[in-house]
Amino acid sequence: xxxxxxxxxxxxxPRKEDPxxxxxxxxxxxxxxxxxxxxxxxxxxxxxxxxxxxxxxxxSALAMHGVDAVVTGSDIAAILKPIPSVVRTPIRYMPVGVxxxxxAGEPVAVVVASDRYLAEDAAEQVSVEIDPLDPVVGPVAAMxxxxxxxxxxxDSNCVSFRTFRYGDPDTAFAxxxxxxxxxxxxxxxxxxxxxxxxxxxHAEKAPDRYTVWSNFQGPFVLHPLMAGALGVAGxxxxxITAPASGGSFGIKQAIFGYILLLSAVSRLTGHPVKxxxxxxxxxxxxxxxxxxxxxxxxxxxENGTLTGLRxxxxxxxxxxxxxxxxxSVYRMHxxxxxxxxxxxxxxxxxxxxxxxxxVGLNRGYGGPQFFFALERLIDCAARKLGFDPVELRRxxxxxxxxxxxxxxxxxxxxxxxYDKAMDMLLAAADYKGLKERRADVRRAGNYFGIGFxxxxxxxxxxxxxxxxxxxxxxxxxxxxxxxxxASATIEMDPSGSVTVQLCSTPNGQGHxxxxxxxxxxxxxxxxxxxxxxxxxxxxxxAWSISSGNYSNRFAAAVTGxxxxxADRVSMRLRKIAAELFECAVDDVELADGKVRIKGxxxxxxxxxxxxxAAHWHPDxxxxxxxxxxxxxxxxxxxxxxxxDDHDRVSxxxxxxxxxDLAAVSIAPDTGKMTVxxxxxxxxxxxxxxxxxxxxxxxxxxxxxxxxxxxxxxxYDTDGNPLNGTFADYRCPTAMEVPPVTVRHLTxxxxxxxxxxxxxxxxxxxxxxAALANAVADALGREDxxxxxTPPTLWRMIHEDIA
Amino acid sequence: xxxxxxxxxxxxxxxxxxxxxxxYGDDAAPLAGGLSLGPMLNLRLARPAVVVxxxxxxxxxxDSLSPDRPVETGALVRQAFLQQRxxxxxxxxxxxxxxxxxxxxxxxxxxTVGGSVAHADPAAELPLCLVTMDGSVWLQxxxxxxxxxxxxxFEAALTTARHPxxxxxxxxxxxxxxxxxxxxxxxxxxxxxxxxAAAAIVRRNDDGRVSGIRLGLGGVEDAPRVxxxxxxxxxxxxxxxxxxxxxxxPTDDPVCDAPYRLALARKLGLAVIxxxxxxxxxHP
Amino acid sequence: xxxxxxxxxxxxxxxxxxxxxxGMATPRTLxxxxxxxxxxxxxxxxxxxxxxxxxxxxxxxxxxxRACAIYAxxxxxxxxxxxxxxxxxxxxxxxxxxxxxxxxxxxxxxTPGILMSAKAFLDDVATVGVAPTEQQVxxxxxxxxxxxxxxxxxxxxxxxxxxxxxxxxxxxSG
Lengths: 802, 284, 174
Prior knowledge:
By secondary structure, chain A is an alpha+beta fold.
């Protein structure tokens, strides 16, 4: 009897993580006291958006009870090197202002005290004299010749300008029967996990090493950058993540600046130091998704066939180009065609620095901005060209026969069936019924609109895509880069119990559960008996530059490492057993916790008996087998090659889909928008755990709703942030997130070992576009800006009436 | 965000509390449910020398026994407790309806009626009800007790007629027991402070005839305001609302501008009047 | 009358989940910090320190409270319930089990506060004896922020428990 192919994989298994989390036993960064003699820090921050630091007087703070030290930016600059950018610009990132401050909330000094309360008291007494300079907040204003320059070493606030041509876009536009253009802005918001940043840094003297505990989420490509900034070899920077992390959605990438800051403070003061970010600090000084100002043009023939696309992107990067930026601008680049067959594409990217907080990873990472441009253009074009938005999309969708499909930008889309997904979307939404309802509502003089957004979900990033910010010549000089490898370690100890070590640093995505399902499947044991360790210690664990939790990489890439590793352990068990049974390896199978000969159930040994042999009796092992049962697999997807000389890059492993339909009504007298129906069709390939898949999709949708309707990190014209608390940064509550109907199309990916595709960004990328399209349809206008708050919508309606 | 250091005093009696207030005045921050003061302390926006914890004072009574007198609530009556009592006793339907809109299940559990009134957020529900119902605030100091009409108590945003040495001891809610009341508000999220809140009461004479109307509006200006109309205003309530709108000077801020606030005030004002009339058995 | 000086640490005695604990706190020590760092109840999570996100929600003398907006000195001689008192990892309380079953948590950081609110809410439901609507559950939940789940699983878990609570109260009264 053979096991069914998927006995554990694919099951909606309740999560292993939950019992600890539900009982208050899970340990987050603020719960850790890993080293004796901890001091606590408070960070002194600039109240000005732009200015020159004249002096910092620390004397009265130093004299206060409980204060050990006050460290200023210039103290830190003595031992911390600024971090260069992949963009060839003189701009360097420092986690603390040294001569200048460039955004309100930027650190300028750090107080070290015996507790956080005293540290905050002393921080108030640090007297920072700043000569204010004119600030510039918006990216377009920042590009003006007269704009104040943020970084004097650069000759412009526009720190990178690159143009890309795929095919012959100029001819496509010249010959187009119709062209449609859309100017847009995309606002700034952030994922704001409920747990903020936390760092504990210990600069040890002997061995000479920095050991840092934090809730960093990767990517670990930042590790060599951090070691370089600290001026130490990589093995002198030991990063350890907390066992549990209270959400990230990308934003805990940018904690690396604080890892450096705290490391330097620990080195300078001789104390291990702890800092937990407060909510005000998080909302004003951590990281935001990039604000965009852009224009998109589409060239269509007389049948509505899309022949060319032109993107003109201006991205507000905030005050610095903080690594891995400008990745947010390039993440979707190779997939600039979206779901469509469009041979000719032009892209112009201007990266602009302003006196606002630096951008970084946030859920969707570049996706919400990209789909807001492309999918708004398609709905807008449908209205202008006289098509139903569905028909215009169908006219241009990639056909299912086209997969695997290489895009003009160089991405390889693995699999899907867009027409079928659209069928499912329309059926689940009752599109015909919605259109009838829209007509009825409009006849009554009210506002009702339907909007679409069809997105693809790149997963498992090629670490090299960000080097598109360099010219091919610059890339050649720097040396080729490619890939996004993933690793896992499985250890079967002498008692036969299994420990799995991952380097995917999850923040709530259930990686431990899914990893246990995969390993249980391969080793024919129960997932409940498998211990999965997801906290990383760079000193002890297998990791590489692409380790971490970002870009939906778990199902697309990390699972491959787990499968490979588990298969190797399985093979070793079978080889040992084959020697004991004196039979061929192929005749040995693992089932029900036993290693046995196929077809002869009574010729079986408990797995633990075979495991014991591997540890206790290495001399008896078959030739070529090492003692013990530990395997580490580091895998790399062959799809992820280096960018070519024509700026084409295979930027991700799998490309799931997110097709959304939104129907909304708007109350004319209050501007309140009600989401009447929302349907989302996903193709995540094979589902490894449907419970986890559903959770990711619903969560991504909630983030999309927040960004589309409620959340904004805004500034006044002086660069003062206006949203410092959860009372004025309005995340949606259970009363605001509307119901969503989810449907699944399943086309297994051939690029991942289990046929799964990455997911997680999900509708966070498409919901802003879908809701904006629905509002554009309802109001009959295209100048839609987010968030779609009642006052904003009321004003638009009122302008129209006036 | 941790507060500045403060001394902590927990009086057991009102007399002790008043002595502290007399001693410290503006340097004392009275603490009830803490849902307004706590965040302000943590953000270091409030920097009192002493926090006077009123939590153990005997100001938890609700006196609604006599139909001829206003309902009296001690300052420390918790919002959730009042909510349950009003529903059980079928009194003060306006306040009952407003309480459903105040903050969240969690904040109403601890939040007190006196704390909300003393804090005086311009959009807060209970101050609006008190003003609309023509209620009053009992202020007490070591010098004695005084009763301030709600319309005089709320002076501006977070500014009241309370003297630094006084405490809000209790609230008086004139409740004629009529069903013709309605409350509505509009907020950006459920449980947020309203952008605009509106309350209406249709009053009757002893003979059952309508004698007048009271329309309260909160969040529009920096303090809640009530408009009082005669029986004529009931018949021409749309004019009454328009006349009220003409008087308002709405707040303008980055989230909501003045024209939007005014539009909401008009909509909600009309809506609560219509609902109050319907509930009074009058069909507008 | 109790008067405590700002610079001094004062002895505070609190009953937590049925057992008495004594620790030290200055007047400004947040109850959340006291429970976490002085008494070791790390399940009380801090997400905003301005009484909005709800992660630190506990029961204080039976009433829901934001432990970040209350000071430890206020809790002297009171009784506190935290997530640690609900159930054990090996024996989850029905509410916790429902959260696991309905995937009502992902990162789990907001979860302890939500569980305490849900407990109070379900106690109310059992007292009233009427099943809450989904809308009522959502209204109750609006006092908490969760960024992972979109709230759906949480709503389902609480509704499922409400059914049980009603059934149980009917059984007991009948």
